Amino acid sequence: MKVGIIGTGNMGRILIEALMESSAISPSNLIITNRTIEKAYCLKDQYPEVNVYTQTSQLIRESSLIFICVKPLDIYSVLSQYKPYFTRGKCAVSITSPISVDQLESVLDCSCARVIPSITNRALSGVSLLSFGKNCDEGWQRLIYEKISSISTPVMIDENITRVSSDIVSCGPAFFSFLTQRFINGAVEETEIDQETATILASEMLIGLGELLKKEIYTLPTLQEKVCVKGGITGEGISALEENLGDVFQKLFRATHEKFEEDLEGTRKQFG
């Protein structure tokens, strides 16, 4: 079975690299294209057996499963322009949160799904968020779940929690990278530790924390209890966080949802 990927930007490239490294798809069965075709050829340098097509119509014709990895406001034009090529036996998969599977099905006659990946999938880890259209064939559902399982933990979500789920899974790595960098900067500014040493220590701490959670040795609350001895140094640090963080995360989710509403409004105008 041939798999096509339209768009080799940040997330498209991560998806391609993860699928290749997990051997979920053989390179010879993968067809890719991009508006700036040079970006697609850069991936072919990395995976010589991957097929690069300059014509999107040809990619869709020759692929059975097609991932659409373009910006939200570019998806409608791709669907409408190439609709005749998305025949009933195929499956179209969007990777962007503002486009629902219902919107995909309103344009296309083939099976439709949405897979929202995360940068963590590049390490064959983390979560991918899945939604299937009402008319998505059960065979396609099983196949997509199987392929995505090779690069992540697939989690089915309802439409009403799409944004917050994506905030946690897809945006979360950037948010916590920002917080970690601030954590490191604070250590460097307030003590004699250097940037390189602080970065190594913080990075290894996060990896260890992830392993504790992955192996279910501790839960998040238990971790705090184990480290935070009453009247100890960690407790003082937690108190500083409680005093200064305030409602920062509530504001974060408000901000992402406000931007999401803007994106939704744009897609509603296109899809009707």
UniProtKB/TrEMBL annotation:
InterPro entries: 6-PGluconate_DH-like_C_sf (IPR008927), NAD(P)-bd_dom_sf (IPR036291), P5C_Rdtase_cat_N (IPR028939), P5CR-like_CS (IPR053790), P5CR_dimer (IPR029036), Pyrroline-COOH_reductase (IPR000304). It holds the Pfam family P5CR_dimer. Belongs to the pyrroline-5-carboxylate reductase family. This is Competence protein ComER. The lineage of its organism: Bacteria, Bacillati, Bacillota, Bacilli, Bacillales. Residues 162-262 form the Pyrroline-5-carboxylate reductase dimerisation domain. It comes from the Bacteria. Residues 2-97 form the Pyrroline-5-carboxylate reductase catalytic N-terminal domain.
